[in-house]
Amino acid sequence: MPEAALRDLARSLEHASAPPARALPVLPALRPVVPGGLRPGSVVGLDGPGAASLALALVAGVSRHGGEDGSGGWCGIVGVPSFGVAAAAGMGAEPERLLLVDEPGDRWPDVVAALAEAVELVLLCPPERPGAAAVRRLSALARKHGGVLALSGPFARDWPGTRLRLRLDEIAWEGIGDGHGRLRGRRVQVVAEGRDAPGRGRRAHLWLPAPDGTVQPAAPVRPPLEIVPPPAVKDGAAVHTRREGEAAVVRIREGIA
What we know:
single chain; 5 helices; 22% helix; 9-stranded mixed β-sheet; Recombinase A
């Protein structure tokens, strides 16, 4: 699709009205970056390394307590054969509320359209660059039914009208020593950008996953403090000793973790 046509389509989708539906819930640890939940009728892009983990966390939040009666909502996962159901369950997802279509084939827009009428969240990895007709159709269905379309994979950024993008930064696994040990958990910074995260966006440090498989807040890692030794005294130089009762002063400087 020509770039000019993509821009026109993006503008038309951004100004289209959304239904007065309630927001889709997210896990408590994600609320600092997605306050109030996912906008109904919107498209969310999951970018970069760790996008699969973000997808698991979004599915867990919706299927855990996304239904109208306070129970879990339904989620469709399309074109993601590697989706980790066990990992999602560890984050709080209800496996019985997940509908998986691993290989939708050339008719993937029809599969997503059918799910958009029945579930709260559709996670889609488009197998090809989406055409204008598919974008208009599926975005309109999301707005009509108040669901959320979450996109991952190499063509996720080619979808016009995406109002929120989530990605991971400052990724660090914990548990590995000097060539030995077991991975226990991963510290990340979740970054939210786009029209639904105005300004410089929103950021939060999380365990994704925590050692127990859940998603938990994590305190930012501060660089270690390094004690700076006093300068060496040359032969013959005057030495100033600390007077009695005077507190010792230790200078420190921040090192590099």
